[in-house]
Design brief:
Helix content is about 45%, strand content about 10%. The chain is an alpha+beta fold and about 425 residues long. The chain folds into three domains: about 5-70, no CATH class; about 75-160; about 185-390, Intergrase catalytic core (hpI Integrase, Chain A, Orthogonal Bundle). It contains 18 helices and nine strands.
């Protein structure tokens, strides 16, 4: 006869080797499960005592979970994203290493937005609609709103891992409002980057003021921007370029480091310990010659030996490289505000120009994209130039009319 102890149903089974005690129960999903009682359950009383112990352990675990579920966002996340935090150490051990500025950003999102608004709520009471409504009230870009949501999702993942919540709610991302960068035309590239040294200096030198500088500085910036557009580099990548990354015999560059927002040279964008995202890219011969010329005349920076481009003994600051870029655009009367031209437009220009020249795979490898979608996003063609680039496939296009081609040509001739 079966005996019930809480949710557990005790029964015995006679086998050739003896009589054994088992129990069955329904799990949380409604499935019926069967288990054997532990060692020492030789009779019904011992088996029932085993189930009573099991039931008491279940009640203690349920009580522990109930207490956990009452934890608020503030109680759970107050120590997250601080140096040495257990979850960061665990992520690190698994190869998921966050950059210091990323950790700082998550911490800032917690303390400035999430905890002040939702800190007193239990974690399972945080609703996506309330979070989205709150973020819409803040004067933030959609990109920033999305990063705040991502911070909250990381917190909730940790809460699920600890059994505080069962399901991580789904958040619908905000649409990014930023529009794509424009690109430079062939004529503008030719004007901005003449090979002649004096002409290049004239384009990129600072407008005359009280702080006159050596011509080598203008030569450096002209070369820097020429390298950027010729290899599709990010600003942080070209500013971190080291002599060891330049391979003259192979006409190319090894891109394996970048400067972060704090001015430190380190990993590339989105790189991890397991995936450095390093790449190699071949550059045009004229660009290579301009780079060789600069390497021959540049002065070594004691604090950063081997750094290809430096300004006042340090890597070029992110804010200053934009100012220098605008000097050159102003010199040629190029309106960088109406067309949205920043240093990053050079990467767009490279991607757009090389899209009709390189295969999709090689272009992604050269520019460092992981998806065709991202390469397509960076494609912003000047349509007349794109039409000119397609002239080499005219023989294929002419085959459209097939067998009617000869009569058509005869009619056209008449």
């Amino acid at each position: 006869m079966a005996v019930k102890v809480g949710k557990y149903h005790l029964f015995q089974r006679r086998l050739e080797t003896g009589t054994f005690w088992y129990y069955w129960f329904y799990d949380e999903t409604g499935n019926r499960l069967q288990r054997a009682c532990g060692f020492g359950c030789e009779d019904k009383r011992a088996a029932a005592a085993f189930l009573e112990d099991l039931l008491r352990a279940d009640l203690l675990e349920e009580k522990r979970k109930d207490e956990l579920r009452k934890k608020t966002l503030s109680q759970f996340a107050d120590k997250m994203f601080l140096e040495g935090a257990p979850h960061l150490e665990r992520w690190k051990a698994k190869g998921r290493i966050l950059k210091p500025q990323t950790i700082t950003q998550h911490r800032r999102h917690l303390m400035n937005y999430l905890i002040p608004k939702f800190g007193k709520l239990p974690l399972d009471k945080i609703r996506p609609a309330n979070v989205e409504d709150y973020l819409l009230e803040q004067r933030l870009s959609n990109s920033c709103r999305n990063t705040i949501i991502y911070t909250l999702q990381l917190v909730l993942r940790e809460a699920k891992r600890e059994g505080i919540i069962e399901v991580i709610p789904e958040f619908e991302p905000f649409k990014r409002a930023g529009r794509r960068q424009d690109v430079l035309s062939s004529e503008e590239l030719t004007a901005l980057f003449p090979y002649d040294e004096k002409e290049l200096i004239e384009i990129w030198k600072r407008p005359d003021d009280m702080r006159k500088e050596r011509e080598e500085i203008a030569l450096m910036f002209g070369t820097l921007f020429c390298i950027t557009v010729s290899a599709g580099l990010r600003s942080g990548e070209v500013r971190a370029l080291h002599r060891d990354q330049v391979s003259i015999p192979n006409s190319g560059l090894i891109i394996n480091q970048a400067i972060d927002d704090k001015g430190k040279i380190g990993l590339l964008k989105k790189a991890t310990a397991e995936d450095s995202r390093s790449r190699a890219v071949i550059i045009p011969e004229i660009t290579l010659k301009m780079l060789e010329r600069w390497l021959d005349c540049r002065e070594e920076t004691p604090e950063y030996p081997g750094l290809v481009f430096s300004y006042r003994g340090k890597p070029v600051a992110n804010y200053y490289i934009l100012d220098r870029f605008r000097f050159g655009l102003d010199k040629l009367g190029i309106d960088y505000e109406k067309r949205r031209l920043t240093v990053h437009c050079l990467r767009y220009t490279y991607n757009t120009r090389m899209k009709t020249i390189l295969s999709a795979q090689v272009l992604r490898e050269f520019i460092g994209h992981r998806s065709i979608a991202m390469t397509d996003h960076y494609d912003n063609p000047i349509l007349l130039e794109r039409l000119e680039a397609y002239q080499n496939i005219r023989p294929s296009v002419e085959q459209f009319w097939g067998q009617t081609e000869k009569p058509l040509r005869k009619a056209i001739a008449q």
